[in-house]
Amino acid sequence: MAVKPGDFLLVNFTLKVKESGETVDTTYDAVAKDAHLHQHDATYGPRFIILGEGWLPKGLEDSLVGADIGKQTTVELPPEKGYGARDPAKMRLVPLRRFREQGVPNPGAQIELDGRPAIVRAVGAGRVQVDYNHPLAGRTLIYDVSIEKVVEDDNEKVLNIISKRIPEVDKTKFNIEKSGTELTVEVPEEAFYLSGLQIAKRSVTSDIQKYFPDVETISFREVFKKRTPGSEVQETPTPAAPESESVETSEKKDARNATEEGAKPQAQPPRKRKTPAAKRPAAKGPTKRAMMGSESQR
């Protein structure tokens, strides 16, 4: 079955730069580790795309039209079919004071400036050179790519759209319900407090409205479920280990302090200047202070 524009696809690929032979992107976990690209918070596996929507370089998408499922091919893209040629006009000198709040960046750092991604090329006296060109602009790209699956089920399509916009949460934890022109997405508890969740939901809504014209109403349902007593009992002992560890640490600290204090010569208390003992009435007898004075005179 050959694919066509508009198909929902799952693709695997590895991307290398021809000039250097460096691997710069991949969907394979093992390849990412070998190329020292692996990120612990990243999810590896086939990447979801809609062919022709520009989610991959245009030259690569064009090469996938008519390709067979499961067959790996190698595609070489010159700059004009990849991320374009480098444009010197996209280099800017920015006053250093604009970075006071976020701190002075280092050369090579990827930042966002004026709502656009950029790379810091140099930091000088009072100015920072930033580059708005794509990091791979001007490079010849080599893709080893294969189409793993054509997604046909509507619910699976929606779940993949959600995963693209909310990659932090496993897509299988979302529940999809469709009734006529209404579609409801049940959001799992893991996603409730994600930063930017509302913006992500807006993007999901826009995508669904674009690719599913028959859907008129989209709802997001967030259900807060009551914890069972059993789960609370299991969660209670969790902080015990750190607490006991901190107690043990404080005890060791106290012991070490005591040892250090014992090793040091004890400071002698400052001597008080003696004053003549005040005369007391004979009936009351000498006070303790007077006795101490008399003993020192012996």
**Helical proportion, percent range:** 25-40%
Count of alpha and pi helical runs: 7
Oligomer: single chain
- In total, how many beta strands? 12
CATH topology of the largest domain: Chitinase A, domain 3
Beta percentage is 15-25%
Q: What radius of gyration results from the CA coordinates? A: 35 Å
Envelope shape: globular
Order of helices and strands: EEHEHEEEEEEHEEHEHHH
Report the sheet with the most strands, covering strand number, pairing sense and barrel closure: 5 strands, antiparallel
The rounded distance between the terminal residues' Cα atoms is 116 Å
Query: If you average the pLDDT, what whole number results?
Result: 82
Low-confidence regions: 233-272, 281-298
How many domains, as an integer? 3
Counting helices, strands and paired strands, the structural category is alpha+beta
Query: What's the level 1 CATH class of the largest domain?
Result: Alpha Beta
Q: Which CATH-level-2 architecture of the largest domain?
A: Roll
